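Renewal narrative, Specific Aim 1. Our central claim is that a sequence can be written position by position from structural information alone. The example that follows is taken directly from our test logs and has not been curated for this report. It begins with the structure tokens describing the chain, in the order in which they were read.
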């Protein structure tokens, strides 16, 4: 009898432990309700000293928030900026309860992503969300490290378990460059910073014109990659999100079945299909380079009222370089309108310019896959001072810079296109 009771207790314990483990891996979410339309997080629940456990894929410390690393490490460390070891960090002044969530990427600690999951429980579709947060820098790593960043992304799904937060993959995520936090300080001697000081932080905000159907989930994601040189200490703080719904939900005048954007030789080809239309006047095609500010680039006449499937195409023949974002503004005959979801296209034209040789005595060459408008080439020394600037011609694929007069040492080549986007490559002058 005693053996039987012990066995039953062991079985019960196994069931309880298994239940706890399953609960720990479930992603919690924040409810987006009809009457409570704002959520805020100040991260002050993070440890003010020592370390705490925050396992990958769980909301251990802050409900609704999940972290993911590329390495099997489960700790978060309180840091005032003096510690430059890689890891997930709770930043703030020593022993202060005012905290910020950040990280330092490295080969040992890996790369990091963290995010918050929200579920639409308003009873209707959410038509846009407003995002606001502060980016903070708590340390400069060293004087040879260029500007680093934390990027912002979002994804929408009917299944909470479908989100892949891993920083190793960007599949199914939409990046919003306008919400990227870039380190205010770089290419200077390594030093501790007060991330709460005005000079060391930046407020970022934007409106995401996205549609989240009732019952669906939206996940907001920040990604800290392991970048060139030792990483600076970057974090986010004082996050707020609010959501907006249509005040008088009505049947959609146009039932959009699909909307796709594909990079082609002629430009970017947009294709969309409607399952039905009611008093549809026309579509405006809108483009953005940052995912926030959109401009109209053309229009396509609608089919009025029809229950038959319609296919539309539009080619953007003059796309900008880099990541492009597109949406449709569908306008009715009474001039009312609705927006589609946003689709994006990754342009590879300037993503990986080839700079050679990396050890040079006379000339540096820059090669790109297709003719593009590289507006300016700038060379910085290790102190971040501009030592050479060269403006470029439109349509070239190979650029040459004479560096024979530069002193021996390490330099950074900043490649800027016509849209103001920059890429940095390092070379050594012997």
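The sequence written for that structure reads:
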């Amino acid at each position: 009898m005693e053996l039987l009771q012990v066995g039953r207790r062991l079985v019960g314990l196994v069931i309880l432990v298994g239940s706890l483990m399953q609960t720990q891996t479930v992603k919690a979410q924040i409810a987006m309700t009809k009457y409570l339309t704002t959520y805020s997080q100040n991260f002050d629940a993070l440890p003010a000293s020592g370390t705490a456990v925050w396992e990958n894929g769980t909301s251990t410390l802050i409900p609704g928030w999940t972290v993911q690393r590329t390495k099997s490490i489960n700790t978060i460390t309180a840091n005032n900026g003096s510690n430059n070891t890689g890891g997930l960090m709770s930043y703030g002044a020593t022993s202060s309860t005012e905290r910020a969530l950040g990280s330092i990427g490295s080969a040992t600690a890996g790369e990091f992503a963290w995010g918050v999951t929200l579920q639409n429980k308003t009873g209707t579709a959410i038509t846009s969300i407003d995002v606001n947060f502060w980016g903070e820098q708590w340390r400069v790593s060293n004087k040879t490290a260029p500007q680093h960043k934390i990027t912002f992304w979002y994804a929408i799904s009917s299944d909470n378990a479908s989100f892949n937060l891993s920083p190793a993959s960007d599949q199914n995520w939409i990046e919003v460059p306008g919400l990227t936090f870039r380190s205010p300080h770089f290419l200077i001697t390594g030093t501790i910073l007060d991330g709460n000081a005005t000079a060391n932080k930046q407020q970022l905000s934007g409106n995401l014109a996205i549609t989240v159907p009732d019952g669906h989930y939206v996940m907001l994601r920040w990604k800290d990659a392991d970048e060139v040189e030792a990483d600076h200490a970057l974090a986010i703080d004082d996050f707020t999100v609010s959501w907006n719904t249509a005040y008088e939900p009505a049947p959609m005048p146009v039932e959009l079945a699909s909307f796709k954007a594909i990079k082609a030789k002629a430009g970017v080809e947009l294709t969309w299909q409607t399952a039905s239309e009611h008093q549809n006047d026309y579509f405006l095609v809108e483009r953005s380079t940052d995912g926030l500010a959109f401009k109209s680039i053309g229009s396509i006449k609608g089919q009025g009222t029809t229950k038959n499937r319609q296919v539309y195409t539009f080619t953007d023949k003059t796309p900008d370089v880099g990541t492009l974002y597109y949406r449709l503004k569908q306008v009715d005959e009474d001039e009312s309108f609705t927006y589609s979801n946003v689709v994006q296209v990754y342009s590879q034209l300037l993503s990986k310019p080839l700079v050679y040789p990396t050890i040079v005595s006379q000339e540096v060459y820059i090669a790109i896959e297709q003719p593009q408008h590289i507006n300016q080439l700038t060379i910085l020394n290790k102190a971040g001072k501009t030592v050479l600037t060269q403006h470029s011609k439109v349509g070239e694929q190979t650029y040459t810079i004479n560096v024979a007069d530069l002193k021996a040492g390490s330099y950074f080549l900043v490649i800027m296109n016509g849209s103001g986007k920059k890429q940095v490559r390092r070379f050594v002058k012997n």
